[in-house]
Design goal:
Shape: globular
Helix content: over 70%
Strand content: under 5%
Mean pLDDT: 88
Order of helices and strands: HHHHHHHHHHHHHHHHHH
Distance between the termini: 25 Å
Largest sheet: none
């Protein structure tokens, strides 16, 4: 069951990614058309506050999943019950803290925005903050149950529920906008769906997993271990907040708002699209890796998994990067407008800087499973600080492209040579062997990009969404044909055959 759950979970993760992208693409313009400019601004502000409050999870979801599997492998039911009870207590405290921080935000709204917001906008913000507080009470406890469900590798349920939430949110948002409920209605839909997901999680936890939390004793040693482990995850979350916001802040300070907008388009495509692609596969492997690490120090099985998944990641990540080379400029032109043409180069530069990290994304789960993520967290914080210091003079002289190049260089150095050295010398993964297996995938990626550019020149269609779709289909057909003939492994061909067989059987 576990192997099927992981495979199906990875596939459903990509389905969820596509569904979310399509629904967001459709209803974002609707939100813009139904809300006034000021109302949308308040909605965006509250969305930022929700994102910051999300950090209050402190990486505890991943921590709970990892420690749960470790205790479960030891087959000590009392320790499992104790871990669940202690984690529930910690989540309770974090929920209270997040509510407290939310209340503080609410009280500070007049101080922070009293001069720039009208009384009506401040009142709207206060009303939406009430929903934010309710959301805090709903989301964090839900994370507890979802972490346990993921730890038990019940990925099909979790991913299917995520897809259902995206679809219901799409329908709900359109409905409340048509009813004239505005930004409050949109936020209320999200809160209601989060509450509904909590009910589903609790039902599955109690009736399908048959788990119970019971505090046998307060394990101080385990508590310290939990906080030290989650602390490193929190550092990585801080890195993401700093690193991907640094460029916009710096460009705003040394150039102008237009440059911020261009770079914002690039970072949006990277963080909400490109980076998400690599997590679809790797997000389902932490329980398995933790179980292996708990049972043995031998790296043979983990290294095999690292190489196998890395090969799949390279096919996906480098394929999409090559696809962006081929049609990205036209996509930016149609989607964002001609004023954002420079965003193409900024996005492509950041993609290249991230390529090593995304191909080796399973390494994060390996480090977490072996409880050796401290080095990575420190490296990432250092490159975030260095990027901030260097990007100021570089951005002032070279603008958006200079800012992107600086970020890409630090990303590549930190995630490439430095982390590969650590994987090889400290974790025990044969990195030269890994790259020997993976680097040939650049051949079909480059060839297909060139073929698609040639196809675009010959047909001379576009710019339009229709022409982008045609070129993307051409790219996919050529890339798939080349990879199937020469670059897919037998394992990857078996996966594709299995999916095709199931789809054919379902259609019949």
């Amino acid at each position: 069951m576990s192997v099927n759950q992981r495979r199906a979970g990875a596939i459903l993760s990509y389905v969820a990614l596509v569904v979310n992208a399509i629904t967001t693409f459709i209803y974002t313009p609707l939100i813009l058309s139904f809300l006034t400019t000021s109302e949308y601004g308040v909605y965006q502000l509250i969305g930022s506050i929700i994102a910051y409050l999300g950090v209050m999870d402190m990486g505890l979801s991943t921590t709970l999943s990892r420690f749960y599997v470790e205790e479960k492998v030891k087959e000590d039911s009392d320790h499992v019950e104790n871990l669940l009870a202690m984690s529930a207590c910690i989540y309770g405290v974090l929920t209270l803290l997040s509510v407290g921080v939310g209340i503080a935000f609410d009280f500070l709204l007049p101080t922070l925005f009293g001069e720039s917001f009208t009384p009506g906008e401040l009142e709207l913000a206060h009303q939406m903050m009430l929903l934010v507080l309710i959301n805090c009470i709903v989301v964090l406890p839900g994370n507890y149950f979802l972490a346990v469900i993921n730890a038990n590798e019940r990925f099909v349920f979790a991913r299917t529920l995520r897809i259902a939430r995206y679809l219901l949110q799409f329908v709900g948002v359109i409905a409340v906008l048509e009813l004239g409920r505005g930004a409050i209605g949109v936020l209320a839909i999200q809160v209601v769906l989060n509450f509904g997901a909590d009910i589903a999680y609790i039902f599955y936890y109690r009736n399908k997993l048959h788990l119970k939390a019971k505090l046998h004793y307060w394990d101080k040693k385990l508590l310290l271990h939990i906080f030290s482990f989650s602390g490193y995850i929190l550092l990585n979350m801080v890195f993401d907040q700093i690193f991907w916001k640094t460029g916009q802040v710096v460009l705003g300070a040394v150039l102008n708002a237009a440059a911020v907008g261009v770079y914002g388009i690039a970072t949006q495509l990277i963080t909400s699209g490109y980076m998400e692609i690599s997590t679809g596969v790797t997000s389902v492997f932490l329980p398995k890796l933790t179980a292996i690490s708990t049972k043995t120090e031998d790296m043979t099985e983990i290294e095999g998994l690292f190489n196998r998944i890395g090969h799949i990641q390279a096919l996906l990540v480098w394929g999409i990067c090559a696809g962006f080379v081929a049609v990205g400029k036209e996509f930016i032109y149609v989607w964002a407008g001609p004023a954002y043409g420079e965003a193409y180069w900024a996005t492509l530069i950041l993609m290249i800087g991230l390529n090593v990290a995304l191909v080796q994304n399973l390494g994060i789960s390996v480090l977490q499973a072996k409880d050796k993520q401290g080095f990575r967290a420190i490296v990432y914080i250092v490159i975030a600080v260095l990027d901030l210091l260097v990007s100021i003079p570089v951005s002032a002289r070279f603008g958006v492209i200079g800012c992107a190049v600086t970020a890409a260089i630090f990303l590549f150095v930190g995630t490439g040579p430095i982390m590969n050295w650590y994987y090889h010398t400290r974790i025990g993964i044969d990195i030269p062997k890994f790259w020997h297996q993976v680097l040939p995938i650049l051949i079909p990626a480059v060839l297909t990009a060139l073929a698609t550019r040639a196809f675009s020149s010959i047909t001379n269609i576009g710019p339009s969404y229709g022409s982008i779709l045609i070129k993307c289909l051409f790219f996919i057909a050529v890339y798939f044909a080349l990879c199937w003939k020469w670059f897919f492994t037998d394992y990857e061909r078996d996966i594709i055959r299995g999916i095709a067989h199931k789809l054919t059987r379902s259609a019949a």
